[in-house]
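My main concern about presentation is that the manuscript never shows what a single data entry looks like. An entry of this sort, consisting of the sequence and the corresponding C-alpha cells, reads as follows:
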Amino acid sequence: MKFDILTLFPESFESFLKTSIIGRAIEEGKIEVRLFDIRDFSENKHHKVDDVPFGGGAGMVMMCQPLFDAIEHVKQLEDDKAPVIFMTPQGETFKQEIAEELSEKGERLILLCGHYEGIDQRVREALIDREISLGNFVLTGGELPAQIIIDGVARLLPGVLGSDESAAEESFSKSLDRKLEYPHYTRPAEFRGMEVPEVLLSGHHKNIEEWRKENCRKP
C-alpha cells in the first residue's frame, strides 16, 4: 500500500519512517511512503505558501495555488481513485473502524498535512475527500496525525506485524466486540509476590478464551 504525504516539513517523517515496524514494512516492500514538499509547488519566488486571512484575524492561511497544484500533481501519479484525506479538528474522530476501512480501501491514500490557521476553504470543497481528527484538541500541524494514520492503517496490512493474529485480536478489534483488550502476562509466573492467574497456566484453551473475554472491558 502507498501513502503519499503532502507536507511543509518532510524532514519530520525521517525518524518515523526508519523505526520499528513501519521501518521494517518499508524495507520489506509491504508499504511505500512518498513525501511531497508543498513549497515545491509554490509559484512565488520565495516559495510562499500562506497569506493573511480575508476578514482579518490572527495567524496565516495556506493558499489555494500551492495546494491545488500539489494535490493535483500527486493524484495524477497513479491511475486510481485514491482518497485525499485532510487532518483537521473538524473531521471525524479516528477510530479502529476507520483504520480497518482505510486498510481495505485500496492501494493508496493521499494525506494532506495542514499548518497555521488551516487551509483555504476552496481546497477543502474542491479536492478533499475526507477529513479526519485525532480528537478534541489542536496541534501545530498535520504531520503527527498523518504518522498516526499511517501506523494505524499499515499495521493492519497482511504481514506487517509478522503475525496477522496480532492485529486480529486486540483492543477495539471486531473479534473483541470493540472492547479493550484483556490483561497480558509473561514469565516469570510469580514476581515479588504477584502471581499470574492460574487459568493462564492451565493449558486449557477454552477456559483461557473465556477468561480473556470476561476480562475485556468497554472503552
Summary: Strands lie at 2-7, 32-37, 50-51, 61-62, 84-93, 108-112, 130-133, 190-191, 194-195.
